[in-house]
Amino acid sequence: MLLSFFGRSNSVSDIMENKDPASPGEAPPRCSFLRAVGLITGDMRLFGEWVKRQVLVVQLLDWVLRGVAQVMLLNNPISGLLIVGGLFLQDPWWAVNALIGTFISTVSALLLGQNRGAVSAGLHGYSGTLVGMLMAVVSAKGSWYWWLLLPNVFMSMLCPVVSSALSSLLGKWDLPILTLPFNILLFVHMAATGGNHPYFPQVDFKPNDHLLALNESVQSLDVSQLFLSVPVGVSQVYGCSSPWTGGVFLLALLLCSPKSCFHAVCGSAAGMLSGLALAAPHQDIYSGLWGYNSVLSCIAIGGGVFYVLTWQTHLLAVLCAFVCAYMNAAVCNVLSVLALPAASWAFSLSTLIFLLMSSEIRAICRVPPSAVSRPEEETRRRRKEKSERKNKTAVDLTPSVYV
Questions:
Q1: Which of 111, 115, 158, 333 is the most buried (most CB within 10 A)?
Q2: Domain annotation covers residue 5
Q3: What does the entry list under GO cellular component (predicted)?
C-alpha cells in the first residue's frame, strides 16, 4: 500500500510539472527515503513474503522477533528487535530468558502442528516471551542462574498447548486469548515452587495490609517522577522499571502503529491517575506498577486492534484503562494473600469484559480475532467500505434515462 501510494504521488508531481514520468532508477531521493520507511513500518508484509522464501533459520528469527513484539499487540520484526534491545538495556539476563522462552514456544507450536500463519505472526511466541521474562524477574536467585532455564524451557513448551486449548474455548465467542496462557503458566510455576524452594525460590510477595498504614500527602508527590511513571508504566509490560526502556518500547510502538503508541501513553497515564485516586503508595506509582495493565487494555480496545477506531471506541478505551487499573488493585490485594503476583490478570479480565459488551451504536464495532490487522489498515479498510457504500447508494438513487 505504501509503495503504491508513493508511486502515485511521484507520477502526479511529474504531471503537474509537465514532465514525463521518471523511471524507477531516476526516483528522487526523498521518494526513495519514504519507500524505505514504508518497508520497515506497519506489519512489514513485503518483508514477510520475502522471509517465506528463505531457509528455516531466517524464518525462525523473524517469527521470534514478531513474537516478542506481539506482547504489545504489534506484528513488526523491527519493533521486536527494538524491544529486545530495550530488554538488554534493562537486564541482559532477563532478555536472554525472554528470547529463549519465545524460541521454545514458537518451535513447540510448529512441532504440535499449529496454524502456520499464526506462528509466523508471532501469536504462539509472545506467551513464551512473558513466561521466560517474568520467571527471571521473580526468581530469588538473581542473574545468570542457569538452572532457571530448565523450568523456563518446560513452561514455554506448554504455551502453545494452553493457547490452543483456550482458543478452542474462547473462539466460540470470537474472543482472543490475550495473556491468559502466560498468567496460568506463571501461576503454576510459582505455586509449585514458592519462596523456600531449594532450586527455584521466588521473591516473597507479602500481603498489602501494611500499605494501609502509609499516610503520604499530596505535597510529598514528586511531579517529575509522576511524568516519568508514564514511560515506566509502558516498560512494566515486560516487567522492566526504567524510563529509558519505556522510551525504546514507545519507539517500537510508534514504528509499527502510531495509534497504538498514542493509546499506550493514554493507558499508562490513566493507570497513574487511578493510583493517585486510590491513594496508592507513591513508589508503586513511580515504578509503573499501576500503568502496565492499562497500557495493554487501552491498546486492545482503543488502538484499533479489537475495535474499529472511532472517537466512541477511544473513550471506551480510556474507560477500560481506568477500570483495568482498579481491577489491578483488587487483584493485587487478593493474590498477595496467596504470595502470588498480579501478573496481567487485570488486563485479561477487564479487556474480555469490554469485548463481551453489546451496543446498538454502529460506531462501536468489534473486530473478531481472525480479522485483526494493524489499526491504520483497519481504519483505511473501513473508510474504503464506507466510501463504496456511499457510491453505490448514489448510483442506485440516480434516475434511469430511457430512450
A1: 158
A2: no
A3: plasma membrane
H helix intervals, 17-148: 29-40, 45-52, 56-69, 77-90, 92-111, 116-120, 126-137
Same domain, 196 and 103: yes
Lookup: cell for 212: 494501609
> Average pLDDT for consecutive 10-residue bins of the chain (403 residues)?
38 40 54 71 86 93 96 94 96 96 97 94 95 93 92 96 95 93 95 87 68 59 92 95 95 93 95 92 92 95 86 93 94 88 94 92 84 67 66 60 43
Query: Each residue of 95-109: b (16+ CB within 10 Å) or e?
Result: bbbbbbbbbbbbbbb
- Would you state the pLDDT for residue 96? 96
Q: Distance of CA 238 to CAs 88, 106, 296, Å?
A: 12, 18, 11
Cα 344-349-355 angle, rounded to 5 deg: 125
Give the phi and the psi of residue 75 in degrees, each rounded to 5: -130, 65
Among 262, 260, 259, 282, smallest CA distance to 272 is for: 282
Collapsed DSSP state (helix, strand, coil) of residue 174: coil
Distance CA 114, CA 122 (A): 12
DSSP string of 185-250, one letter each residue: HHHHHHHHH-TT-SSS-B-----GGGGGG----GGG--HHHHHHHHHHHHHGGGT---HHHHHHHH
C-alpha 138: how far from chain center: 21
Query: What Cα–Cα distance (Å) separates residue 141 from each residue in 93, 98, 203, 204, 338?
Result: 12, 17, 9, 12, 21
- Given a contact cutoff of 8 angstroms between Cβ atoms, the answer to whether 256 and 43 are in contact is yes
CA dihedral 189, 355, 369, 329 (to 10 degrees): -30
**Which of these three, 204, 219, 235, is where a domain ends?**
204
Domain extent for 68: 38-204
Q: Measured between alpha carbons, how far is 167 from 182 in angstroms, rounded to an integer?
A: 14
Contact in structure between 298 and 375 (CB atoms under 8 Å): no
- Tell me the one-letter amino acid at 261: C
What per-residue string of b and e applies to 153-167 under the rule 16 or more CB within 10 Å gives b? Answer: bebbbbbbebbbebb
Q: What is the pLDDT, as a whole number, of residue 7?
A: 39
Say how many domains are in the chain. 2
